Amino acid sequence: MSETDIFRALADPTRREMLERLAGGELNATEIRDGLDMSQPAVSQHLAVLRQAGLISEERSGRTVRYRVRAAGLSPLHDWLGRHRAFWPERIDRLKTLLKEMDQ
Description:
alpha+beta
C-alpha cells in the first residue's frame, strides 16, 4: 500500500481508535464497536478502509470474522517517517552553522 492510502485511512479519528483497539489483540467487529456511537454498517465501512490500506487483516471462521493489526502494513509509513527524520537534523545543523557564521 502507498503512504497516501495509509495517511488517508489514519486521517479519521474513528479509524485510529479502531486501530488502537486492535493493537491490544484480535477482535471481532462487535468488540471493536463497543463504546463507539455508530452502526454496525459504519464500523464495517471503517474496517474496510483499514483493510484496503493494508493496516489490518481479517480471518473468517464460519460466520465469525476476527480482525488484527498487520504490522507490515505500517512499513511504508515507517519508511516515510525515517526519510523525514533524517532530513530535519541535517537542516537544523546547517542552520546552526549559518547562524554562527553570521554572528562572527
